[in-house]
Structure formats: C-alpha cells, structure tokens
Amino acid sequence: MTKPFAIAIHGGAGTILSSQMTETHHQQIVSALETAVCAGYQVLKQGGDALEAVVVAVTHLENSPHFNAGCGSVLTHKEMVEMDASVMFGDQKQVGAIAGVRHIKNPITLARDVLKHSQHVFLVGDGAEEFAFEQGHTYTEQDYFFTDRRYEQLQSMKEKGLFALSESSYPDDKKFGTVGSVALDQSGNLAAATSTGGVTNKKYGRVGDSAVIGAGTFAENNNVAISTTGMGEAFIRHTVASDVAARMRYLNEEINVACDSVIHGELKNIGGEGGLIAINDKGEIHFSMNSLGMYRASIDLDGNVSVKIYADE
C-alpha cells in the first residue's frame, strides 16, 4: 500500500497586485509553478526521498527567469549575481548550505552536495565554488544570469541610494524574491529547500535568511518542514522556521496555528513582511503570509494540484 506523500513550493511573497498583472505574465508564472511542483511530485510518486524531491522542484524554479533565484537572480551593487541556498533533510536533521556563489547554475544542488558529500554544513564564496567544481558542477559565466529587467532594477535602486528586491515597473516588483519547497516522502521523511538571488543593490557580501538553517529553512521528521520568503533580516532575527517547528514540537500546536502565530504575530509587528510554506508529518500543507500575495503551488495527499498567487485565493 502506498504511504502518504505530498509537496509544496513557493516563488516569493510580497506586494503582488492582480490589477498590474497581465494575463500573459500570469500564465507564465502559473505554468512555471505547476511545472516545478509536478517535477518534485514525480520524484515522490516513484518512491524517491523528500530531499531529492525538493531539490528537483527548486531547480526548476532556479531555471525560470520569473523568480529571484538561479537565472532570474537580482544584481548586487557591483552588477554581479550572488546566490544563497540551503537544504535540510528531516532524518537526523542533515543540512547543507551555501552563500555568495557567482558561477553555479543551480545553487540548490550545490547545497545538497554540501549535505551529502562534505564534512561541513555551510560553505561560502570562493570556497563553496571550489567545492562545487570538485563535485562536478560546471562553471557558469555571469552572462547566463544577466537580464535587462534586473539591470534596470539595479540602476533604479542606485539612483535612489536604496537596496530592495526591485521597483514598481513590474506587477510583482515589491516582492521578496526567494524560491523554496517542502515535501513528505513515502518513508515519512520531511525535507525543505530554499534558494535566492538576494536583494537588488546589496553590498558587503550580504546574506539573508535563505541560507540560514532555522531562519529560512527547517525540516524535522515526525514534525514539520518549512521554507520561508520575506525580509531576510527580520526572518533571521526571529528564527522564523525553527520557531514554527518549536511551537509544534513543544506546544503541540497544529500546523496552521503555529505558522500563522509567527507570521502574523511578532514578525508582522516588527514590519517583517513575507510568508512561508510548511508541511507536517501527516502531509498536511499550510501557506501563511502577511503580504498581499505569494507565488505558491502544491500537490496534496490525494494528488490534487493547486496553484495560487494572491493572498485572498
């Protein structure tokens, strides 16, 4: 008898307005989300583990220019791409994380390789890339990541002396760009993965919550797996992902209560805009956000596919 399995993904949360979304752009986003979640689901359906499922799903999102990760990453102050990612496998709480990589096509696969093939849990910058090439990752020129859209956003931020995800030239430009996935496999394992290009015009090697275990990513068997998206500094300060897990572990809160208590509670009170996706050990999925929208998709225990964008859906 097949045991329960399910998966969910996100492509970032923030100010996403239907009034500014063209039908073409809407369909492109929906198609990209559906493709990614179905790819991860197929891994689970074939008996694969949750870690591989979330990595496959996030890889598809990194390969889409519509999300701030991989080839859609925003640009730093020096007009470079610097990407962060992390994974966590609920079995024995295995983790892998990388930050500040510039020449790796799919950072999430590198984070997975840190988990599987290194004695460490977190690698950064040149060292992370040195390890990547030892693992067979190919060198990817910065040109692969460069888009006119991201360049225009950077120039706008430079003119204003600000750093942010982007500006209002696009319907989702005030969105915190992160992608992620959570899954439960047929063996009862939970896993989470998160990847990002960071924020536009960032300086000094800034790293947000996506690479930080317990802030942007967390997975614990017999409990919950979480991937967040939002104002990275706030999510780190409040260790959002681990806080949700702790509420479920120690207070026995239901998944929706734990998630909403954190996202709509202290985080919102300090202006921490964003959201998260979560799945528990029963395969129940919950999306929580204090923003106007979050790109998200899921395939539940019955195989039903759901793709949504706005908070009121």
TrEMBL record:
The record marks G177, T178 as: Cleavage. CDD domains: Asparaginase_2 (cd04701). InterPro entries: Ntn_hydrolases_N, Peptidase_T2. Gene3D superfamilies: (Glycosyl)asparaginase. Keywords: Autocatalytic cleavage, Hydrolase, Protease. The keyword Hydrolase applies. The keyword Protease applies. Substrate binds at R206, V207, G208, D209, T229, G230, M231, G232. It holds the Pfam family Asparaginase_2. It comes from the Bacteria. GO terms for molecular function: hydrolase activity, acting on carbon-nitrogen (but not peptide) bonds, in linear amides; peptidase activity. GO terms for biological process: proteolysis. The active site is at T178 (nucleophile). This is Isoaspartyl peptidase. It comes from Vibrio sinensis.
